[in-house]
Specification:
The protein is an alpha+beta fold. It has one domain. It is 27% helix and 26% strand. Strands 1-2-3-4 form a four-stranded antiparallel beta sheet, with no helix packed on it. It is globular and about 50 Å long.
């Protein structure tokens, strides 16, 4: 039996974040403080391709601060790719932790179908 799931992503898992960055060929996230256009933000810094400022993840709250000036300082699609990769990596980690198998298939529209087999059957 299959189920459709919607996920509101909060970024809290450091391992899944690092895996998402590797998946996308990005530098590993580093702990630090970033100067944004207005102010500073502390947390795990994610350098997205073409972005003037990093995205800053607060793993305690799951929140992400960034400044891309409505797309002028960074393509929002890059942020979407990071969130998609994080969600895939987090779901995979949790499924495997519970002994389930995981397979993924990229779709023509850029989305990815993740299939989790209960008890190891994918």
């Amino acid at each position: 039996m299959s189920h459709i799931v919607s996920i509101a992503t909060e970024v809290r898992d450091r391992q899944a974040m690092a895996s998402a960055c590797r998946r996308l060929g990005l530098p590993e996230p580093v702990e630090g403080t970033a100067k944004l256009f207005e102010g500073e933000a502390a947390g795990l810094l994610v350098k997205l391709p073409g972005w003037l400022y990093p995205a800053v993840v607060d793993v305690a709250t799951g929140g992400i601060r960034y400044d891309n000036y409505g797309g002028q300082w960074g393509d929002p699609a890059q942020f979407g790719r990071f969130l998609q990769a994080y969600a895939i990596e987090k779901a995979t980690i949790e499924a495997r932790r519970r002994g389930h198998s995981v397979s993924e298939r990229p779709l023509a529209d850029g989305s990815i179908r993740l299939t989790i087999g209960v008890g190891g059957d994918a």
